[in-house]
């Protein structure tokens, strides 16, 4: 009788333990799949009729945002290079600040500077408008945009 009772007890405790472990495994698998799933931040690049890609913009500046320049450093209708940050910051019209990664979208060369109202890459002659769009090729895609905002007298990129 002891043998039959111990077999019944072993069977009844083993089944819930297996079910528990199976449930834990299912939860872990669901968590892993959720972490690997598609992003919902709208970060995909949209194509245009001629195959150009839209500029990519990151999320608005958050708590880890960084001051990159003073508002007064960026002329209206012009731009400035911030070489140590690999950025170009422009102000196409008063109060409208734009920031771009200072890498040409043609072949990955560093942007070489700003001439008047154009952002210039001397590698192959590409030129970009103050809004980051292509003014002259061979580049076909706009510069990659970064979020920027004026906070008091500072320009903050996040």
TrEMBL record:
InterPro entries in the record? Rieske_2Fe-2S, Rieske_2Fe-2S_sf, Rieske_Fe-S_prot, Rieske_Fe-S_prot_C, TAT_signal
User: Keyword Iron, does the record have it?
Assistant: yes
Gene3D superfamilies under this entry? Rieske [2Fe-2S] iron-sulphur domain (2.102.10.10)
Q: Which cofactor does it need?
A: [2Fe-2S] cluster
CDD domains linked to this entry:
Rieske (cd03467)
Q: Which UniProt keywords apply?
A: 2Fe-2S, Disulfide bond, Iron, Iron-sulfur, Metal-binding
Report the superkingdom from the record.
Answer: Bacteria
* Annotated SUPFAM superfamilies: ISP domain
Annotated Rieske domain residues? 66-157
Q: What does this protein do?
A: Iron-sulfur subunit of the cytochrome bc1 complex, an essential component of the respiratory electron transport chain required for ATP synthesis. The bc1 complex catalyzes the oxidation of menaquinol and the reduction of cytochrome c in the respiratory chain. The bc1 complex operates through a Q-cycle mechanism that couples electron transfer to generation of the proton gradient that drives ATP synthesis.
Protein name in UniProt: Cytochrome bc1 complex Rieske iron-sulfur subunit
